[in-house]
Structure formats: C-alpha cells, structure tokens
Design a protein that fits this description.
By secondary structure, this protein is mainly alpha-helical. The chain has helices at about 1-10, 35-45, 45-50, 70-85, 100-135, 140-160, 170-180; strands at about 15-20, 65. It is built from seven helices and two strands. It has a two-stranded antiparallel ribbon.
C-alpha cells in the first residue's frame, strides 16, 4: 500500500492529470500492519474495495485520468509516468504492469512496425503478379496499379503529416482501402 501511495502521489504531480484513484483512497492513513489492513478492509466490505483490489489480494489497480490532451500528449504523458514510476524504489516481489488505450496502442505500434513493411511488400508483390496475369501484360498490369500506389502513398503521407499514429483501427482501414482499390 505504501508503494501504491508513492505511485499515486507521483502521478498526481503531473500536468494534465485530473484524477488518481487507488486502493490507498480507502484509508485515511495506511495501517502499519497487514492484519490492521485486513481488519479495515473487512470493516469496509468487499463491495467497496473489490474494484481496486483483487479478491486474492495479489493485484491492485491505480486509475490515472487526464483531460484536455491530444493523442501525442497522451503518449508523452504515459511514457513520462512509466519512466518516473519505474524509477521509484519498490519491494522485491512487487510487479507493475501498465494497461489502457495508450499502452495498447504503443504495443500495437511496435508490433506492427516490425511486420508491416514485410507484409506490405509481400501483399503488393502478390497483387502485382495477379494483375499482370489477369491483364496478360506487364505494362497494363502496372498501369492499373498506379492509382492504388499513389492513393496509398498520399493517404499514408497525409496521415503522417497530420501527426497521427498507426493504431489497430487505422491499420484495418488502410487494409480495407487497399482491398477496395484492388477490386
């Protein structure tokens, strides 16, 4: 609970963070012993604390809310929070994991960057082979793909120019767009 309190206080010090909820909010003062913590939790009733502490007491949730930030500011805030929280001294055996849309999008971004170039190259090569075979001409096959090439390049370029990150939904939209364009 003391570590959770340190994390909560660290998070509250960041600009744009509007609210931090943690299991320490259940106590006026953190009880000095595990037995007293258990007594306080029993007195509160499980319905009151089960939203922030697991029933086996092996996990707890800290909710950090921010308002008035863009996607890129949210990513920056999440990275700064993670850096500062990871630098806090914690007892051995404590494990900290991060979740939420920002961290899920970051994980997707890392995974998609690793495979998207290869996947795109293989998919485009296969489309070229099919189109060349259908038109029975390299010239007409490549000419039919010009609009697809320029459309995808312009769309991805505009997306990057606007400062938007690749997310699961945008990646899916690009794939659907390519499929429609090929048809």
């Amino acid at each position: 609970l003391r570590y959770i309190q340190m994390v909560s206080e660290e998070a509250e010090n960041f600009d744009k963070v509007t609210n931090v909820e943690s299991p320490t909010d259940l106590f006026r003062e953190i009880p000095p012993t595990q037995r007293k913590v258990q007594q306080n939790l029993d007195r509160l009733g499980q319905q009151r604390w089960e939203q922030t502490i697991s029933g086996e007491y092996n996990a707890a949730r800290i909710t950090i809310e921010a308002a008035g930030i863009s996607q890129s500011e949210g990513v920056e805030l999440a990275e700064n929070l993670q850096y500062h929280i990871d630098s806090l001294t914690k007892q051995p055996g404590l494990e900290l994991t991060y979740t939420g849309s920002i961290f899920i999008d970051q994980a997707f971004q890392e995974q998609s960057n690793n495979t998207s170039q290869t996947t795109s190259l293989v998919a485009f090569s296969m489309v070229m082979v099919v189109v060349i075979l259908l038109f029975r001409s390299i010239f007409y096959g490549l000419a039919s793909l010009q609009t697809l090439l320029f459309g995808v390049a312009a769309g991805v370029g505009l997306f990057g120019w606007l400062g938007l990150n690749l997310s699961p939904s945008t990646s899916g939209a690009i794939s659907v767009g390519i499929g429609i364009a090929v048809d």
